[in-house]
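A brief tutorial aside. Many learners find it easier to grasp structure tokens once they have seen a single protein encoded end to end. The record that follows does exactly this for Phosphoglycerate mutase family protein. Read the sequence first, then the structure, and try to relate runs of similar tokens to stretches of the chain.
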Amino acid sequence: MHGFVVGSAGVAVVPEGVLRAVAARAVSLVADWNSDAPDSGITGLMGGGEVTLYRPRPRHAVDWWRIRTQRKGERMTATTIHFVRHGEVHNPDHVLYERLPGFHLSDRGVRMARATARYLASNPQTSDIRAVYSSPLERTRQTADEILRAVNARRSSAGQEPLSMRLDERVIEAGNEFRGMRIGHGQGALWRPRNLRLVRNLWTPTWGESYRHIASRMADFSRDVIRRHPDEQVVVVSHESPIWSFRHYLETGHPEHNMLLRHAALASVTSITIDDETGGVMSITYVDPAAHIR
């Protein structure tokens, strides 16, 4: 199988004249990571949540990304990785928690994780899960625990051995220089010269780990998953920025994006199906099983 290679792309730089007008809105969402902005695609309903189906865009296709034509008598095998974003986090001070310890799921976040766990375990298209991976942070581990509980209950009823959680640093939250700050307040005030420099480029971005590096580590992780679990379904609990950066890279050929247009809600599932032989992306689907949780 060919590897994932992050392609080159130009980077748009925000002019100084408009920076102050957009910075407050843009960077405030760094703390939230939960955009409801619509995206393009074929939208329908499955399992009670919204689903958007994508196909690779031919103009961006490279040799590892094409959909291979099935030959007569040949059985194609494909691995599906279900990337799950963690549930809502208990964060009463509204700080950007990034990779800081001590940030666990809120009560609502636990309910969200359970809703997504029920969806994954009961939906015929996702129920045959063979492995569960997680970012090592507390909020993702809690979410993965709920998924494992539901999946293992189903496996037990079928006489199968229970699965255990596997941690991997490559799917961890993006590094961010605003960690521990409340955006727009105190040390996080955007008028501070240091902070203005951090938000000068919204597409790279300049406030922390680059989208290119995030997509690269996610691609490296995905290669390993496909090697370990060919023709299987795997759950990976991660964070909005890594999930979206990798998805955007697969759809467009570059990981840089406008964070205001992300579409990866809390406890949502982004499922990527990849041909085991060629590495071609066969489909990308999105569902939000916890959208009804209040």
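Self-check: Residues 138-157 form the longest helix (20 residues). If you spotted this yourself, you are ready for the next section.
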